[in-house]
Each structure stands twice: as structure tokens, then as C-alpha cells.
Design a protein that fits this description.
Number of helices: 17
Shape: extended
Order of helices and strands: EEHEHHHHHHHHHHHHHHHH
Largest sheet: 3 strands, antiparallel
Oligomer: single chain
Helix content: over 70%
Structural class: mainly alpha
Distance between the termini: 88 Å
Strand content: 5-15%
């Protein structure tokens, strides 16, 4: 299918709408617009996906998806037909890329496809959890409620990730400052110390000699240093894309000092919150485990959930299947066991998610407070060590001259 951009007048509102759609030809696009109640004004085929810059600036954020989802839920809940609801949301959407996606979804729905199948054609925009909740809502006749749950899920997950990113921002800034201080000392002060020693025909102390050698290498072979770093980064990134690299990265996240427990709580909160949302919408236990395993975005946790799913399929209780997994925090199977006994597993998983979300908030605040003095000490040690390596030899020279 080809993609067309168009301008058309909505016969119901007399407003001019600009968007995109997919069709086999320009004539087919015109027929589709007329069928939807539009009067085509201009139809142009899009020859490409646009520039890199336009794709980057036009990316669909979580906020865009949440607003779209809530608007669609409100309109459907008010009794508007699905097709009309999609076109109404389309008019209110400002993000051009999301407009294009909504238009394609609307076209598919009007062509007879289910809403969940239409969303599934855009896996880079809508997650498997999103699509599964929509499918469950269609089957149960509670599409508006499912959409609201999807929006809540997206907001909670985005809020947690945003807090973690915020906690990691300050350490990165301090590390940049440390490297900046090191570069300044190496390229401005160290060469002057070397010149001073050469003028006095004195031998450099070992620490100062190392710094002088590093500074000289970087000054004369900076291009080689850039190539080495670029190649190392390239191969490391390629390694992280392999199965063993992904496993290494995911293991590192949950075991790294200081931040490991934070990531563990993030994954437990994500598993419990996603599980609660899916079960409350009517998704089966096995489908819930399959979807949440991928939704946690950590292969170590996913493998534990998959092993638990196999045991549940064999007739074992979910709590018993999870409690033997080392990567699953003990509170999760304990609360699920209470839910199994009361018949309210989804509610218990919601409470587990709330516990970990609250603990995560507290830990992020604690780390943010504790990490500042630690980083200041590291900065002081690095800067002080370099200053010492420069000033101590100078003091030695002065004392030698006085003697």
C-alpha cells in the first residue's frame, strides 16, 4: 500500500482536515475519504518517510499516547461510534506522526478490522500490553474501561522511569565535570610542569611522568584515541545487542551496587502493575504471564516468569511457582498467595505494585540525597590527586633550590 497526505472537508462539521492514509492508489484514497464522510480537496502521495530530523522531532511520546488513549476512552464511553471517535481524536491530535497512525487505524477499523488488530499493525507505537488490554476490552464489551486502564498503566510506568532517570542525571553531570577537570589539568598545567623540569634538567617523579606521557599522547594522537574509543563503544554496543550481551546487561542492572535494588523494585512494580491491569480486564492467567514477562523489559526476570508460567500450565499455583525463583522478590508470591485464597489475585497484585512503587520513590530520594556527598568526595580525590601530582614536584624543586 502507498501512503497519501490529504486535505479534506468534513461534511458533518464543515472543517478542513489534514492527515494521511494508506491506499492502493490516489483514486482508492479518494473513495475511502468519501466513504468516511469527507470531501477530498487535495491528495498527494508521500514518496518517503521524511528526513531524520523530522522523524526525530515528530516522535510519539508517552504523554501523546496517554492523551490519545484518554480522549478515545471518553468518546467511546459517551456512546460515540468507534470510527467517529477516532476521527474526533484525530482532529484534536497535534503530533503529526501520531495523526498518521490514528488515520491508518481509523481506515482499518472502517475496513472491518478489529481495533486491537488495527493497533497491532503499529508495534513500535503500541506495546503488547496495550494491544492485549484493547482486545480484552473488545471481547468483554468494556473498551472504554480498558482504554482508561491502559492510560493509567502508561502514566504510572512513565512516572517511575522518569524518576529513575532523574536520579541518574546528577551522577552523570558530576562525571562529566570530573573528566573536564582532568582534561584541563592534563592539557594546560601538566605541560608547564614538564617544561619547568626540562629547564632545570631534573627527572620527573613517576606520577607526574605518567600524566605528562598521557597528555603528550592525547595531544599528538587525539585522532587515534577517538578511533580507539569509537571502535570500543561500537563493539560494546554490538555486544549488548547479542543474547549474551542482553543477559549481561540485565544481570548487571539488578546486581550493581546502590542501584541494583532500585531496578529490582522497578521490575517487581512493573510486573505486578501490568499483571493487575491484565487480570482485571479479563486476560487469562497464562496470557498475563506471557505478556508481563516481556513487559518487565529484563530477560532475567522474564525467564523466571516464563518458568513460573510453565508450572502454572502444569497445574501449580502461581504463588508456588514464583516463590522458588531467586529473581522474584519474596513479597510478590506471598501477596499473590493471599489473592489466590481470597479469589482476588488482581487486587493483591495491585497492592504489591503500590508497595514497590512507594518503596521505589523513597529509595530514589535516598539515593539522590546520599549520592551527592559521595560524588563530591570522588571529585575532590580526583582533582586533589592531580593537583598533588603537579604541585608536590614543584615544591620539591623549590626546596632543592633553597638547599
Amino acid at each position: 500500500m502507498k501512503k497519501f497526505s490529504y486535505e479534506a472537508r468534513d461534511q458533518a462539521t464543515n472543517k478542513v482536515v489534514k492527515a494521511t492514509l494508506q491506499a492502493d492508489s490516489e483514486a482508492a484514497a479518494a473513495r475511502l475519504l468519501v466513504k468516511q464522510g469527507f470531501v477530498p480537496l487535495t491528495i498527494k502521495e508521500q514518496m518517503g518517510d521524511g528526513s531524520f530530523l523530522s522523524r526525530f522531532t515528530g516522535r510519539i511520546s508517552t504523554k501523546d499516547k496517554v492523551v490519545f488513549t484518554r480522549q478515545l476512552a471518553t468518546l467511546i464511553g459517551a456512546g460515540l461510534p468507534l470510527s467517529q471517535s477516532l476521527h474526533t481524536v484525530l482532529e484534536q491530535t497535534e503530533n503529526k506522526q501520531l495523526q498518521s497512525v490514528i488515520q491508518e487505524i481509523a481506515s482499518n477499523v472502517e475496513g472491518g478490522k478489529a481495533l486491537s488488530d488495527s493497533f497491532a499493525k503499529h508495534p513500535k507505537v503500541f506495546s503488547e500490553v496495550f494491544i492485549s488490554l484493547i482486545a480484552a476490552g473488545e471481547l468483554s464489551g468494556t473498551l472504554d474501561e480498558s482504554l482508561q486502564r491502559v492510560a493509567n498503566q502508561q502514566e504510572k510506568d512513565a512516572a517511575i522511569v522518569s524518576k529513575i532517570k532523574g536520579a541518574l542525571t546528577y551522577p552523570l553531570i558530576v562525571l562529566v565535570v570530573i573528566f573536564g577537570v582532568m582534561a584541563f589539568m592534563l592539557f594546560t598545567v601538566v605541560p608547564q610542569v614538564e617544561t619547568l623540569y626540562e629547564d632545570l634538567n631534573k627527572e620527573l617523579p613517576i606520577l607526574t611522568f605518567i600524566m605528562v606521557s598521557v597528555a603528550a599522547f592525547l595531544a599528538n594522537y587525539w585522532w587515534l584515541a577517538i578511533i580507539i574509543v569509537a571502535v570500543a563503544v561500537y563493539f560494546f554496543v554490538q555486544y549488548l545487542g547479542t543474547e549474551s550481551g542482553i543477559t549481561f546487561k540485565d544481570n548487571f542492572k539488578v546486581k550493581v551496587p546502590l542501584f541494583g535494588k532500585m531496578f529490582q523494585k522497578l521490575y517487581m512494580a512493573r510486573f505486578a502493575r501490568t499483571g493487575q491491569t491484565l487480570l482485571s480486564t479479563g486476560v487469562s492467567m497464562l496470557d498475563m504471564l506471557k505478556i508481563t514477562g516481556r513487559a518487565v523489559n529484563n530477560t532475567v526476570i522474564q525467564k523466571s516468569i516464563d518458568r513460573a508460567a510453565d508450572k502454572v500450565q502444569g497445574g501449580k499455583a502461581l504463588s508456588s511457582a514464583l516463590e522458588v525463583e531467586d529473581s522474584i522478590s519474596p513479597l510478590v508470591p506471598q501477596m499473590i498467595k493471599i489473592g489466590e485464597q481470597s479469589g482476588k489475585i488482581d487486587e493483591m497484585m495491585g497492592k504489591v505494585a503500590q508497595v514497590y512503587e512507594d518503596e521505589l520513590d523513597e529509595q530514589i530520594r535516598t539515593i539522590s540525597t546520599a549520592i551527592e556527598p559521595v560524588l563530591m568526595v570522588i571529585l575532590a580525590v580526583v582533582a586533589g590527586g592531580m593537583v598533588g601530582a603537579i604541585l608536590l614536584p614543584i615544591y620539591g624543586l623549590v626546596n632543592g633550590i633553597n638547599i
